[in-house]
Automatic annotation (TrEMBL), chain A:
Signal peptide: none annotated. PANTHER family: METALLOPHOSPHOESTERASE, CALCINEURIN SUPERFAMILY (PTHR43143), SERINE_THREONINE-PROTEIN PHOSPHATASE CPPED1 (PTHR43143:SF1). It comes from the Bacteria. This is Calcineurin-like phosphoesterase domain-containing protein.
Automatic annotation (TrEMBL), chain B:
This is Outer membrane beta-barrel protein. It comes from Psychrosphaera haliotis. Keywords: Signal. The lineage of its organism: Bacteria, Pseudomonadati, Pseudomonadota, Gammaproteobacteria, Alteromonadales. Residues 1-17 form the signal peptide.
């Protein structure tokens, strides 16, 4: 009996040693997240786009604030995998709660189940600790844009407590401008946080720049509004707890949003005075 | 703080009375640095506290920094003896601890930086580790040990998302949240 206990202890220890990581500190800057870079996913998105009729309607999903709930994120990804109408997923930030490499790795373990490209946008919690370094190494840029079936998506960083000089409004305006030879149906802006109260002119600036809709997360609840004097719809997706997410349907003429908790229902913006 | 800890660790061997409640230990890994030195004290039977100083070397995108630690450990008296290489070795499998660690790097904070509202974030420089240790007594006053540490957020996530870790990592998911290290401990 004694020998069995000794052998069991040694076997369990050996297994733990071989399975666990040797980490110097919680504050490492290298997270193991294969396949999550924005450039890899944009390349994948181009391949997806090449298989679709250019005039077709399409859907994309928005997932936000999955920090601390990787199981819900995994379930959401598996749920979205089953929907062929959804062509890609936008992950709107707060992948980590405290900016620790392990937190990014847990989320990535769930995200790697995807059968669709995932475009990630940095959240305020992702910028904590050495999260900014991890983001650059794992995902890439904080601001970027892409076009899918004549709709332009502009992803920008507006986490003003963690980053300096954000958002880069002149960059957004330049990205929103339509080139002479370009055919564009819509221009969509995406950031983790909806326009801050200390940036009261941002909505109007975005509208003037040609933005048709903006998407955000951060508030952990569904919000959908537009100001009566600007009429630029802002949609906020709830956090991912309970597999909450949003699905956006794009036609050449319209943009339609569904709030999914996880069952989906159409959402319309409330007009504020 | 760093100098006081270093002084304590250096002076500790002078307290060499028999049955001294003091001990020192050196470890690597398990989230306390590439090297971590600590001086420990036996508060009561099976109950130990220690103060330590660890060093984390620089990386291409991060400067080096120190880790200060305060640890409490419960060490049970259960032992399994066996012989190896003509030596009697006592395996001690019941050792559980908790550490508070603090990192002194400018990118991390204890108090919120200016401009961030009160209570917006918990301190990023201060973390809690939950530890398990398998120790082997290789002489009457010396133990070597393997340590597994789980970060505060790891334990919270594991409790909230048990099936996720169980399904995606080995050993009931514990491999997904644990980091290992090794060390040696010697009584004065």
């Amino acid at each position: 009996m004694k020998l069995i206990k000794q052998i069991s202890t040694l076997v369990i220890s050996t297994l733990l040693l071989s399975a666990c990581d040797y980490e110097l500190s919680p504050w490492e800057t290298d997270a193991h997240c294969p396949g999550m870079t924005i450039s890899e996913n944009l390349k994948w998105l181009k391949e997806v786009e090449s298989t679709i009729d250019p005039a077709a309607d399409f859907q994309f999903a928005i997932v936000g604030d999955p920090q601390q709930f990787p199981k819900d994120l995994e379930n959401t990804i598996e749920r979205l995998n089953k929907n062929d109408s959804i062509k890609f997923i936008v992950l709107l930030g707060d992948i980590a709660e405290t900016g620790i490499a392990q937190e990014f790795e847990w989320a990535c373990k769930a995200l790697e189940k995807t059968t669709k490209p995932i475009l990630s946008v940095v959240g305020n919690h992702d910028g904590l600790s050495f999260g900014q370094e991890i983001w650059r190494n794992t995902f890439g840029p904080f601001d970027y844009s892409f076009t899918f079936l004549e709709t332009k998506f502009i992803a920008f960083n507006n986490n003003q407590y963690e980053f300096e000089n954000v958002p880069d409004v002149s960059w957004i305006e330049a990205e929103a401008a339509v080139n002479e030879d370009e055919k564009r149906n819509h221009t969509i802006a995406m950031s983790h946080i909806k326009p801050w109260e200390n940036q009261p002119t941002l909505s109007a600036t975005l509208k003037e720049a040609g933005i048709d809709y903006t998407f955000h997360t951060h508030d952990h609840k569904f919000i959908h509004f537009q100001d009566s004097d600007i009429m630029l719809p802002h949609h906020v997706t709830a956090n991912n707890l309970g597999q909450q997410h949003a699905i956006v349907t794009i036609t050449p003429e319209t943009i339609e949003v569904e709030d999914c908790a996880p069952a989906c229902e159409l959402s319309f913006p409330t007009t504020r005075n | 703080m760093q100098r006081i800890l270093l002084l304590l660790i250096l002076l500790a061997p002078l307290a060499h009375a028999n049955e001294s409640p003091f001990e020192w230990e050196i470890q690597t890994g398990a989230l306390k640095g590439s090297v971590h030195a600590a001086i420990g004290y036996e508060l009561a039977s099976k109950h130990f506290v220690s103060l330590g100083l660890g060093y984390v070397p620089s990386e291409s995108d991060r400067d080096a920094f120190n880790i200060y630690s305060l640890n409490y450990m419960y060490r049970g008296t259960t032992e399994y003896s066996f012989s190896a290489w003509d030596n009697e070795i006592n395996l001690k499998p019941i050792n559980f601890g908790v550490s508070t660690i603090y990192a002194d790097h400018e990118a991390l904070f204890f108090s919120l930086p200016d401009g961030i509202p009160s209570g917006y974030y918990a301190p990023t420089a201060l973390r809690i580790l939950f530890e398990y240790e398998l120790a082997a007594e290789i002489s009457s006053d010396t133990d070597v040990f393997i340590k597994w540490s789980v970060l505060d957020v790891g334990l919270i996530n594991y409790a909230r998302n048990y099936s996720f870790y169980r399904d995606n990592y080995e050993l009931l998911g514990l491999a997904g949240i644990s980091s290992w290290g090794v060390g040696i401990r010697k009584a004065f």
